[in-house]
Give the backbone structure.
Amino acid sequence: MTFDVAITALKLLANERIFQPETPTTPIQIMGLMESAGHTFDALWVCGLHDQCWPPAPSPNPFLPIDEQRKQGLIQSSAELQYQQAKRQTEHWASSASVVVFSYPKSDGNTPLLISPLLEDFNLVEQTDVVQALADEGLQERIGGDCLEAMNDNVGPTHVADGITRGGVSILKDQAACPFKAFAHKRLLASAIEQPEPGIDARLRGSLVHRSLEGVWAKIKSHQQLLRLSIDEQHVLVESIVKDVVEKESWLTPILKKSFGALEIKRIVELLTDWLSIDRAREPFDVAATELKQTLTIGALHINTSIDRVDTLADGSSVIIDYKTGSVATGSWFGERPEEPQLPLYGVFGGDGVQSIAFAQLKKGEAKYVGMSDCAEQFSALKGLDKTKGAEADWDAQMARWQAVAIALTNQFVAGDARVMPTKKACDYCDLSSLCRINEQTTEEQAND
């Protein structure tokens, strides 16, 4: 056998044998163009035969001279060769089954399409005729209906509260921000994979500050004891407590054993020194509790909570304090869907005697108390209800309002409310956009408008 004869035989074998992974015998097979070559069928449906793709456009090899490709008869090198090959393939399809259907799409998006010129010699029939001839009655009904069925499924199964519900106050925070967020996070337990960050992340920084403050007030205990300390004595105490907190954390976070640890100690000591100067200027108080663990019953929910700090004022009333290392505002407490419902919940359900709630804004250069009080004369850093935008006229009315909002949010969560209905800022840092498909929903609504 000569070389030329061998090449001819190889081409013949290659054209006759198209590789297809072995699959079990099935009554219906979906094949590509090359896979279908050489086969016969009981029935055949060839789709997608529009004028833009059949016959295919030439696609010569960019690395070989095009004249040489055409001289060697490479099919992809010229429109004429592509046409002849497509014509042979079409004729083969037409004779490979007793029932053959050729079809083409009328459009691709907004681009209208026409039938392939290679199909002009075949009888053109309407789609309905093909359906009536080949489909049973049930299939005909489905084909005649809408291609897609839309179902607005916004309600999940009812939540059965048998004991403590995991999630704490964040259940109601998520429910207020977006019902689907609460359903996905607390019922489906869906969350994004945390991305590693270089250095120390914000969550750990906040935790170190919280634990340092807990240690400081475990030693000092009251405003009076704080004033008894000189500034130097206070610095020694604070530095010792912060070093101890960071050293314990370094066993879990080794980066704190290096220069990061020293920098973090310096940062926290400076932050707490600024903060204690604010507490020194306050009216008398005792620290009744730090990191107070409670189980609150809100409607049908029982949730565990941890209150950063509870102070007792000179008149015997209590103030609940929540540490925040970022900017805060009391406006986040009000409305039917409050952005920060934690302190209002503590005020309503945390026990008798609470007449003040406050954020402790532990932010460098902007440290201050932000809150409201029914006894502002005992805690002048806070505003009275009459000076707080959005507040009710008196404390009892405000507590009743917050209670009604909390129970309403609880009832929605328990009922399985899973509407994708975010508040204005709810999507800014949400990890669920690919699950709730809010972007697709927004695009569709804009298109409908």
Remarks:
- The chain is about 40% helix and 15% strand.
- Strands lie at 43-46, 99-102, 107-108, 111-112, 285-298, 301-313, 318-324, 354-361, 368-373, 383-384.
- The two ends are 73 Å apart (CA to CA).
